[in-house]
Amino acid sequence: MITAAIKKITYRSQIFPKEAFRVITENEEAAKPYLREALEKAIQEQTDLDGDYQLHFYALFLLGQFQDKAAFQKITELVSLPPDVVDYLIGDTITSGLSDILYNTYDGNLTQLKQMVADTKIDEFVRADALEVMGQLYLDGEISETDWKSFLAQTIHDAKGYDHVCNKIADLICRCHFVDMLPEIRYMFDHDLMDEGYLGDYDSCVDLMFKYDEEEISFCKKSMNAAEYLKSWAMFTDGDTKTPDMSKKDLEKMLRAMERTLNPPIRKQKIGRNDPCPCGSGKKYKFCCMNKPKAPVDDIESPEERRRWLERYPAAGRERIPGRVYLEDYYDRDSIEADKLLYLGLMHRPGLIWKRDEQKENQRTREYLYLAFQEASEIAEREKLTSLEKFDKKHGIHYRCAEWLGRLLELLKDAGDQVRYDEVRNWIQTMREED
Questions:
Q1: What integer is the mean pLDDT of 51-63?
Q2: Is the backbone of residue 313 left (phi > 0), alpha (psi -120 to 50) or beta?
Q3: Sequence-separated (6 or more) residues with CB below 8 Å from residue 342
Q4: Mean pLDDT value across residues 357-381
């Protein structure tokens, strides 16, 4: 029975071998020698292996499901082959399941994982998978926080140029909420070690640093079901999979739905005289903001619009959850309020590209940045900060002064606003390090 099931998954087929997987799963110990032997065959033959031979591919997922520690060394040997060989042998596995396979077969050899991460001759996605396994081992308490941070920092500073491993490091730093390692992420951006298309720019990394999902954080699945992993892969088909042509009407309907998803309509909030004031003071609206002069920021966007675009901004820790980090733990209220203005002006706002109004967007950005400039100059004067570097060190959160002030000058120049342009430029010139 087991030999027949193994034979069924030895070569490529268009139909997922569901029954063979069931038999192999029910006869785990009898199947393991065949699966390990398939890995050895792939390692030995490499690109000479028959292109239709698939047993080694299935073996990776099944041995991961069986949590076969005895297979870990062979698995790491296989995925550490030259990148073109690995691509030939297992294809998309390196981006769709390998970290789970490595984690579930991990035999305690942490040095092996570290060597894989450091070896630039190995496929960069394989190295990132090994790094992700180490991240899960940190969460499991098998690697100390000090050792984990030290390894991440060392890997960053050993990088010689762009490396996908650095993308993964930034992701792990943020999801582990290592706020003290934000300078390492900044270093990677400054030295072009990572791709801003992976997590977004530095501001997106700051958001991710303070973001918590409802589910418990996990980098690798702690158990696997090989059949569930593989049955929906595009390599399997049970008939004609041709996608019907989309009509013009259906296309327009889809685009309208996309626009509503990206930018749902905002309903202006009606506030009664006796309702609680939306500013959060706890007072009735009539005794608080109802008769106050309109704030300059309200000339740019309504409070409802601002709330929408600040939804991704790190949440205030009014009801604190033990073990979590909050922006207020690291920055004062003035810093955060100035940063919110910068965020509203500079953070990417999704939308359909052909519906964007560049002139309107530039105007909005310009006005938000100018308000942030006024806040920053007041803070610097009050605290006697004499350089942009000192301001960044104490108050910079999502953006550095050089980034947003340069953008502001550009927008003011384009708008022909010479008065404000000179004001901003003169302030920049005064912000020099003291001798």
A1: 95
A2: beta
A3: 368, 369, 372, 398, 399, 404
A4: 95
Where on the phi/psi map is residue 417: left (φ > 0), alpha (ψ -120 to 50), or beta? beta
According to DSSP, residue 320 is labeled: -
Q: For 124, how many CA atoms within 13 A lie in the half-sphere containing its CB?
A: 12
**Taking the mean position of all CA atoms in its chain, how far away is CA 180?**
18
pLDDT-derived band at 261, boundaries 50, 70, 90? low
* pLDDT tens figures, 318-327: 788 888 999 9
Distances in Å between the Cα of 414 and the Cα atoms of 174, 291, 343, 362, 368 are 37, 36, 21, 10, 16
Q: Which helix (H) or strand (E) holds 379?
A: helix 358-383
CA distances from 193 to 120, 128, 133, 400 (A): 14, 14, 21, 19
* Cβ pair 355, 259 in contact under 8 A: yes
CB 71 within 8 A of CB 79: no
- pLDDT per position as a tens digit, 110-125: 999 999 999 999 999 9
Q: How far apart are CA 268 and CA 303, in angstroms?
A: 9
pTM of the full structure: 0.84
212-249: pLDDT as tens digits: 987 778 999 999 999 998 988 877 875 444 445 556 56
Cβ-based neighbours of 303, under 8 Å, separated by 6 or more: 269, 278
